[in-house]
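Hello, quick one for you while I still have it in my head. No rush at all, and the record is pasted right below.
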Amino acid sequence: MNFQTALPHFTPVDLAAVLLIWGGWFVIGHLVDNAKSHKPSVSVLMRRYRREWMRQFVTRQPRIFDATILSSLRQGTTFFASACMIALGGGMALIGNTERLSGVAEDFTFETAPDIVWEVKIGMALIFVVNAFLKFVWAHRLFGYCAVVMAAVPNDHDNPAVYARAAQAAELNISAARSYNRGLRSVYFALAALTWLLGAWVLLLATVLTLSFLWRREFSSRSRTVLLDGLGTLSTEPAE
């Protein structure tokens, strides 16, 4: 059965749910990464702390502590990249054998649908997983670049190039964190996309809950308040 013959099984509610999840994914990502200075997100606030980290790194001796932190950050990206690979393998296996999945899904939704309908629904979740995997891999590589630049920072803090090179390491660290955060958001939306198997209304609800969850974590969480309270202790730097 081709996709054209499966179209009648997708309702206007399905279309609205798909548009909402993709639109919400794009909008929340834009708002988080480009939050205004008067209401910064946690991601934006962490950029300042990462720059401060590199400024303190210049005079810290020994620098084993910094290397340990960076190593833990790379391990996090490795873990999620590996998890995405496993999820991709499982998703492809489901697409290749949708008979069992359709039986379980029909028990919940009380409706029958051709295999291609389930394949399309799983495929949308896998698109988010693929995006997450690519973001985690790139974040891992950027953290590696950051480690090399940090190793190139002179031990003599009176060297005229020391703070400029530390600033380069900070920007690489920020870029890596941005890619890592985008990967995490894609994982959240992949989990929401899986609820489409239970119906369009469930997908709508899951998308709204995911958006509210991300918004609260970035703009209304206790951790954001703590980060804001500590801004006064950071070195002076240009506004975001």
Summary: Residues 40-233 form one domain. The two ends are 52 Å apart (CA to CA). The chain has a mean pLDDT of 88.
